[in-house]
Amino acid sequence: MRGGFILAVHAFGSGMADATEAKVVILGSGPAGATAAIYAARAMLEPVLISGLQPGGQLTITTDVENYPGFAEAIQGPWLMEQMQAQAEHVGTRVVQDMIASVDLGGHPFTLTGDSGSRYRARTIIIATGAQAKWLGLASEETYKGFGVSACATCDGFFFRGKRVAVVGGGNTAAEEALFLTNFAEHVTLIHRGPVLRADKTNQMRLAANGKIAIRYDTVVDEILGTSEPRAVNAVRLRSLEDGTKETLPVDGLFVAIGHTPATELFHGQLDMDGDGYIRTEPDSTRTSVPGVFAAGDVKDKIFRQAVTAAGMGCMAALEAERFLAARH
Ligand code: NDP
What we know:
The longest helix is centred in the C-terminal third of the chain and has 22 residues, at about 305-329. This protein is an alpha/beta fold. Strand 1 (about 20-25), helix 1 (about 30-40) and strand 2 form a beta-alpha-beta unit. The strands form five sheets. Strands 1, 2, 5, 6, 7, 8 and 19 form a seven-stranded mixed β-sheet that branches. Strands 10-17-11-12-13 form a five-stranded parallel β-sheet. Strands 14-15-16 form a three-stranded antiparallel β-sheet. Helix content is about 25%, strand content about 30%. The chain starts with 19 loop residues before the first strand and ends with a helix. It is elongated and about 65 Å long. NADPH dihydro-nicotinamide-adenine-dinucleotide phosphate (NDP) binds near residues 176, 258 and 303.
């Protein structure tokens, strides 16, 4: 079936007039949400997918994708997400362009209210709202994002074979990105604003033992320098926080690894989360602390953060939602 179908819109009494009723509401349209939608639709659950602020998710701000299985040639991130959404629609997902402003998980069915005032009543919810990489906030960072500036070494490291790169950050992610990049790059400079790394001792020892890595402490990136034709990075301007001196470091790429922010504000106080705000799920499951609410992808995963792992979790969430509904009804 093409183009999806419109769910019956039911009117409910007392404050829920014109609410859309759904067996499954999926929040988020990245690989986790889209895959959950494909599986839920094929299980005849007539899912409603609410696409959120950045339809398609983080892949829409990347360019070449070479590690999503099934494509021998590099594909474009935005194209991959269009395909996933089209596939979800073809099998019966209703995609709604909306932002959810509030959620009440206190009763069942759960209730959700969109920015526009639209209302939903959901027997299950799959949260796939993802996470956003934190960025430095430089104008030049915007210019070169996807053209030498990246927040994912696993995704983009391969493009820097034999080149010089820099990584910004002092946590475990930055340490692991720097170590991983030495598989490709000729040299990696880790730039940390503090005097000591936040990364754990094991990672610190690995960094120290790796001859391709140099660490610059008490240093920040002031500017990313490069060319416009072709759009490419060729250096970063560093500033010492100790004495203010500036220096230009030639690099072909800059990886920003200063943390991620999971999109979980809507659920604070309603679902169990870890100290960084990621939703906790049961082992080997996408079940959250509220029965009938499932979480998949980067919103619950700060370790792997890959499109393919998110897609896998989306599949798990849909299968678990189906089992939950079957057991209840
Ligand atoms: P963290 O919050 O641990 O570290 C972020 C780093 O970025 C800090 O060193 C911080 O500096 C620096 N930073 C933050 N903002 C800026 C900025 N604007 N400019 C320059 N530097 C900045 O994030 P991670 O992503 O590294 O880790 C998140 C969580 O995931 C942690 O709990 C971590 O341990 C965990 N993790 C675990 C892994 C594992 O166990 N294998 C792998 C990856 C992550 P400062 O130190 O000065 O605050």
